[in-house]
Give the backbone structure.
Amino acid sequence: MHSVNKHKKWWQKIIGDKMTLSGALSFFIMGLGQFRNRQIAKGLFFFGIQFIYVLFEIMTSSLVSEVIPGQPKAWGYGFFRKGLWGIYTLGESTGGRFRDNSTMLMIEGLIAIMLLLVYLFFWIYNIKDANNIHLRYLETGQRQTSKEFLDELFEKSFAYVIIGPALILLMLISIMPILFGLLIAFTNYDAYHLTPANLLDWVGFENFKKLFTYTRWKNTFIGVTLWTVSWATLATFTTFFGGLFLAIIVNNKYVAFKRFWRTILIIPWAIPGMISLLVFSNFFNQTYGPLNQMLGKSIPWLNEPMHARATLLIVNFWLGVPYFMMLMSGLLTSFDKTLYEAAKVDGATNTQIFWRITFPILFTQVLPLLVMSFAHNFNNFGAVFFLTNGGPRNINYEYAGHTDLLISWIYKMTVDFKMYNMASVMSFVIFLIIGTISVFNFSRTKAFKEEF
């Protein structure tokens, strides 16, 4: 009895308190309930959606397309049936000249599922609409005209109508690749199982288990993660405080030619980062680098773990400080001067004014950007790839070097070693880390609290 009540409540949330004949008709054929409610245009719209889906399924099946002798039976399925079959089985080994491609079947399956979800939305909406319109007719004795429906739609749901097409494109272009990458983490897609030569298999959480239980994988993951978090934290706060320091210096009333100094100091940020990193990689070369030749020493700037990590931070400081300097300069010039005048009247020193007034206000305004900067540095692939390429080599790590971040480790696993399944696991882990940190910090910002 309890389950029946729950079932009724579930339906009530979708179609309302009572099911009418119009709603029941639309349950089987979309738009039929609207026809009964004498809403011809709306009924044609819903019927057209169902007709397109059914027609597309028929046109992509063996009922219409040519059947090649000897091809697998599943190749004759329609798009949606084949998509669901493919993502469930990842293909079957049939022999002969026909061969399934597991990755393509997975992509087709995801597209099919997303399009079916869109269809499910319209199917539920069509039932609910037909049912509610008929209930309104029973209460008022008046039928809603097409013009009244459009006026109501654009008044209450205009935003949803506008973002609907963009949302569908977002599903196919952005969400679908993310889901595809996540699904790869649950397969055996590696150098020994490459498509289309081999079929993939679902392995469940075996790859996650390998990451956290196998000694070499676990040690690499812990080591690279600790360095990535340390790097992101240091890279963010060194550039922040460095930019703040330069902004205070440049904005000092005793400094002349402020525009000139701002222009000079922003040049490192204006130059493409890749070019600067490639120049620095030659500048810090242990054997032929100009720096070691000027010093008359052979310092392993990029060939010794601690030196390489320190060099990375120095170069990132050079590239990142101008951004924060310009940001802080703009914020400092917008401060209410009466705050400083009141503080001086109360006898506050310049140091007290900075730490009690300037810095708290600045930090509150910049905190969302610091979170974004942390996320950027967490995935700052270019800095590592173009300066150290993850080196120097670490013999205790699996496919990673001493300066590799999680993102560059993923790059090596995919491009160099074809470990797509483990790279997918790491991508999911990065998403969890960055997502958790970003949501936590954004939720504590003043702008977030005021919005919600």
Remarks:
- Residues 335 and 361 are 9 Å apart (CA to CA).
- The chain has a mean pLDDT of 87.
- Residues 15-201 form one domain.
- The chain has two domains: 15-201, 208-451.
